[in-house]
Amino acid sequence: MLDKNGIAKRIAKEVQNGYYVNLGIGIPTLVANFVRDDIEVEFQSENGVLGMGPFPFEGQEDADIINAGKQTITTMPGASFFDSATSFSMIRGKHVHLTILGAMEVSENGDIANWKIPGKMVKGMGGAMDLVASADNIIVAMMHTNKRGESKLLKRCSLPLTGVGCVTKVVTNMAVLEIKNNQFYLIERAPGVSVEEIQNATEGTLFIEGEIPEMNI
Amino acid sequence: MINKKVNNVEAALVGVKSDMTLMLGGFGLCGIPENSIAELVRLGVKNVTCISNNAGVDDFGLGLLLQNKQIKKMISSYVGENDEFERQMLSGELEVELTPQGTLAEKCRAAQAGFPAFYTPAGYGTEVAEGKETRDFDGKMFVLESAYKADFAFVKAWKGDAAGNLVFKGTARNFNPLMCGAATITVAEVEELVSVGELDPNQIHTPGIFVQRIFQGEKFEKRIEQKTVRQSS
Questions:
Q1: In this predicted model, what pLDDT tens digit does every residue of A171-198 receive, in sequence order?
Q2: Is A125–B128 a contact, with Cβ atoms under 8 angstroms apart?
Q3: What's this model's pTM, rounded to 2 decimal places?
Q4: B113 and chain A: CB distance < 8 Å anywhere?
Q5: Which of A14, A40, A42, A46 is catalytic?
Q6: Residue A15: exposure state from Cβ atoms within 10 A (0-12, 13-18, ≥19)
Q7: Among this protein's residues, is A46 annotated catalytic?
Q8: Dihedral, B89, B29, B69, B84 alpha carbons, nearest 10
Q9: What's the CA angle centered on B108, arms B107 and B110, to 5 degrees?
Q10: DSSP H or E run through A45
Q11: CA of B155: how far to CAs of A86, B49, B132, in Å?
């Protein structure tokens, strides 16, 4: 079973040379720590920066330079700032190659829910609806089950949707799965996790073919 | 040069009344029009509709207007950092319209640019699209979203001049340039009001035509919402 850093580490392997990448809040933010340093990648934050760098050193933080999680950040050489409409032109116009975001639920047809629990939590969707409706390459980073042990990979999402039929890949603490033909295709197992355990933790239709390799991270 | 300069925040907010629709720039607490918000609190206008990506925190930004119960309706994309907001929303005192962030930006830009509406894929198939016209373009579904209509826009810039030209800094740019000219009257507060001619015309982010009033903000707290640092190696 992977921890949050393990999930981020596995997802980092999906990041390719020349990619512009948008990282959501939570586990996705950790991905930046594990991207190979022999490739060129630029991180976009939808509040208006391309070429995001690491957190600043103590005393170097600038209230005017933050990421979409409202955290103080730095920029890399070659970075740029822009307004929010330009930022979403990059996203909606498919100039960003890879979007990595968290989710509360994902369904077997690629629907995603991550912005609202009616009556309990209403924080808003932020940029998530624009991101999932626009990007071709969306990876969801999340735990396989919720705090009550219930599957987050479902036949149908029970929570209000963020987007329909948009998720292509899910990386959880237990597995890597691709979504196509209204099924979750099991691609890899997390170290020490059996196919049976993944099956038991997956409510949606799970397609298993042949030997499922263990992740190499 | 057409002079947009006013002497202080009081003069800048002349004409703001209860029941108006106001746009406020900023993302989180970054690049918010602090001085104009303080004046809105002082004026005590009520029942206003605020269009702003976020709603501030409990004791800063738009949170100050919320505490004072001056806001009737909030139009935002993300409101997660504010307990008083959540309380007023769940109790029904506050009307809330949640809009995807890119759509919110574009609704401002559309108002600025004279477009009545536009199609976006964001929110298709979700409750955001309920009751809205949808349309297929080349096999993909889009939602028709309308431009905002606002009485005042309050923005914050780094530098500006009496002609109303604005330069923003870092990610404090965010929604600010998009709200300029998107309301009947745009009020810009700047950290530094420089002499006309000092700003390089090549480097101006928002041309003065989109701004009706500009003033030097008296003080900027520029509070950091999430201070994150790394250890020095």
A1: 999 999 999 999 999 999 999 999 999 9
A2: yes
A3: 0.96
A4: no
A5: A46
A6: buried
A7: yes
A8: 40
A9: 65
A10: strand A42-45
A11: 17, 16, 29
